[in-house]
Amino acid sequence: YQIANQSLAKAYGTTVDVLEGSRDSNFAGEDDEVESFIEDDREVMRSGNLKEIPEEPLTAPGSGETYWYETIKVPLFLDSAPEQRQVLGVATDITERLETQKRLEDQNRRLNLAKRAGETGIWDYDIESERLNWDDQMTDIFGCQPNTYDGFLDCIHPSDRHSVDARVRESLQTGEMYRQEYRIQRGDNDE
């Protein structure tokens, strides 16, 4: 490292002064990670092209904890021979973002399982644009996928349409939760 910053030093569990003038192999916790870093650097120096790495692991020495980085490597001194070029690496710690994404994916998976088990769907209605957004389960239940409120009403059994429309409008005016039982007329003509 010609220069380093506090974030990288913290990831390696050292100081900027110790890090500068050192190599990845002096600090990285896993040999395969070091090899990957070196190969990426060589590729950037050889090709003279920027390289974006969307997810790259870094195992902290000592603790063995894995952090994830989004890294961009840029070649420097392109007018020099490839072996004399240097690489500027900018890495952003995305560990928290990936952990949050995994938690959301797990929650979504559990929600979908519960929806399927309960034969329940989720929808929302944008009042200003009058657009409906239905999940796949709602489409399966109704046998159609309306994009507008009027399209939704078309899916309601003709005998129940007026009461559903009245109850929806009342809920919108009062702010009360909308809850109602009604029959549907499926797009495949089943009721």
- Following the backbone from N to C, one meets helices and strands in this order, namely HHHEEEHEEHHH
What is the CA-based Rg, rounded?
28 Å
Order the strands across the largest sheet as they lie in space.
1-2-3
> What's the story with the biggest beta sheet?
3 strands, antiparallel
User: What class do helices, strands and sheet pairing give?
Assistant: alpha+beta
Strand fraction equals 15-25%
Helix proportion of residues, in percent? 40-55%
Oligomer: single chain
Low-confidence stretches: none
Shape: elongated
Number of helices: 7
β-strand number: 5
Measured between the Cα atoms of the first and last residue, the distance is 70 Å
Mean pLDDT, to the nearest integer, reads 88
Explain this structure to me?
The chain has 7 helices and 5 strands; from the N terminus they run αααβββαββααα. With 191 residues, it is of the alpha+beta class. A hairpin with a 4-residue loop joins β4 and β5 (131-134). The mean pLDDT is 88.
Outline of this structure?
The chain is an alpha+beta fold.
Features:
7 helices; alpha+beta; elongated; 191 residues
Describe the secondary structure blueprint for this structure.
Layout (H helix, E strand, L loop, with lengths): L5 H7 L3 H4 L11 H17 L3 E9 L6 E11 L9 E8 L1 H24 L4 E4 L4 E4 L1 H7 L6 H7 L5 H14 L17
Antiparallel strand pairs: 1-2, 2-3, 4-5
